[in-house]
Amino acid sequence: MRLTIFGSGYVGLVTGACFAEAGNNVLCVDVDERKVEMLKRGESPIFEPGLTELLKKNIAAGRITFTTDAAEGVKHGLFQFIAVGTPPDEDGSADLKYVLAVAESIGTHINEYRVVVTKSTVPVGTADKVKAKIDATLKARGVSFEFDVVSNPEFLKEGAAINDFMKPDRVVVGTDNPRTGELLKALYDPFTRSRDRMIVMDVRSSELTKYAANAMLATKISFMNELASLAERMGADIEKVRLGIGSDPRIGYHFIYPGAGYGGSCFPKDVQALSRSARDHSFNAELLNAVEGVNKRQKEVLFEKIQRYFDGKLKGRTIALWGLAFKPNTDDMREAPSRVLMERLWEAGAKVRAYDPVAAHETQRIYGERPDFAIVNSAPEALQGADALAIITEWQEFRSPDFEAIKSALTQPVIFDGRNLYDPAFVKRFGLSYYAIGRGDSLC
Hints:
By secondary structure, this protein is α/β, with parallel strands linked by helices. The protein contains 18 helices and 14 strands.
């Protein structure tokens, strides 16, 4: 099939590459000329395991191409996927200007039947706005062409996006036209053959499903972080509590790991946007507001532990930081807990020596050169001259470190673990003080 993907960011690029891998003819449209030229060379502008290889393979096969020409994009594909960004507006709502700009482009250049698919994460009612924008643009042209607008939210995890797309838990399609549902079913058939994973529903329910999924996962994380704060004050170990409740199949182990708070491009933005949508419909979403509030507070916890340990005297101290990205297997720094920790340390007069396997370049782009910040090339190098170690991202290479070397390198033998990677009793055998999240320590 012939597909056009508007937007070559995280969602659009993974979607395009995976559809091309299934044998489709994909054209990705982006307004960023520099990015398009990179992509034509097979260079991915984002880090996602396996994505670069997939792009190069399908570029060589002629199944995926890139352009800045919107007219070419509209002409190319029966399916017109909208996968552009929906950044949070000042009031927390999703900004739809890029989505509606694509809709206007489609209305400007359409000359035969098209299926317009909203892949971006958008509020309930966006499909109606997309349809209205295309209709208005066609009316201004004095022409009329048939088209359908479909909701098809993505459920990709950064770091595992290709596998999620190729072997989806579910494919949600929102449409009011049974014929269009059959077209989407045929498009996704290569990914759902082993069993029927496609769920077809009305458009508004589909739009809400995406927000509901992310809000539920964010709620589980904030709930565990709230319990972790309680466990510290009660002298309990949240990791043992996690094992106790996760064994209940009604709860399960997914997303009940306490830590330094959630980040990334989805959870913070989507919880805020859903809460704002609730207010727009005269409903106070108290639980959603609490989820966001707990998360903001949780991002301060590691700094507060460090500050208490040093009696508030952080000026002139150097803190080694392991991990910068908001989660492993990505270079995404959006809403990363590391940013809150570093900025609070700098405000207190401390310096940071940081290491991350892939997010160094993105972090440097955000913060630039500054005298109180050094990005180094290895975890041991980050320890040199540091007063303490803080762990903020659970990269695999941090899970079995040389604790004797850590103690030897640090001027103060102390680890602040924002991801609960280690057994406290084991770490303390090496003469290290160890402060984690919700493990009964006294720094609360």
